[in-house]
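Q: Please design a sequence for this.
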């Protein structure tokens, strides 16, 4: 007989996204070398601002079968590298045909998505807005506001993460501030 998986209950703060009972995974700026297009601004920020925390998220110990669902919160802090907003690395799922849902709990920003075929899409995050990431799309959360961008996510637990493709190729598009507005531009470094 198969041992039943235990139900569980986890707290996530609606404003901060943080849990008092779990440990988050933290991404400081130095871990994102090559992701921001302004390399000089990147190096200066790492050195002068003591390698700031850009985002954190939860990797929970849920069984990783196709019937299980992985979930947690992601918190992107406000700030910019040059004129490019703080963001997550972004990833494809190893099982490319995997969709994902993100629900914005607090803060403001965007979900930037692109697929291997070259299509890209962007959707707005605001408290109470859910964003559906379709299968095949890499996804990156971008904080364009002045408060932490907090989202709750869930997807099939065996889908896995492919960060390497983004780390080597980059994203086709970038989200930057220009004259006080948010703009999507072509990534000059896209390979
Ligand atoms: Ni994902």
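A: Design:
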């Amino acid at each position: 007989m198969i041992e039943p998986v235990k139900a569980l209950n986890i707290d996530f703060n609606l404003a901060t996204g943080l849990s008092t009972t779990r440990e988050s995974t933290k991404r400081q700026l130095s871990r994102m070398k090559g992701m921001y297009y302004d390399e000089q601004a990147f190096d200066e920020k790492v050195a002068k601002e003591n390698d700031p925390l850009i985002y954190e998220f939860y990797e929970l110990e849920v069984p990783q079968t196709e019937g299980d669902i992985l979930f947690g919160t992601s918190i992107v802090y406000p700030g910019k590298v040059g004129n490019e907003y703080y963001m997550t690395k972004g990833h494809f799922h190893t099982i490319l045909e995997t969709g994902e849902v993100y629900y914005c709990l607090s803060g403001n920003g965007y979900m930037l998505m692109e697929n291997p075929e070259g299509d890209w899409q962007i959707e707005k995050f605001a408290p109470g807005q859910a964003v559906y990431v379709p299968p095949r799309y890499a996804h990156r959360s971008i904080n364009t506001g002045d408060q932490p961008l907090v989202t709750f996510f869930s997807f099939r637990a065996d889908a896995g993460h492919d960060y390497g493709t983004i780390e080597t190729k980059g994203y086709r598009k970038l989200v930057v501030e220009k004259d006080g507005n948010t703009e999507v531009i072509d990534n000059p470094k896209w390979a």
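Q: Thanks. Anything notable?
A: The first helix runs from residue 39 to 48. The radius of gyration is 17 Å.
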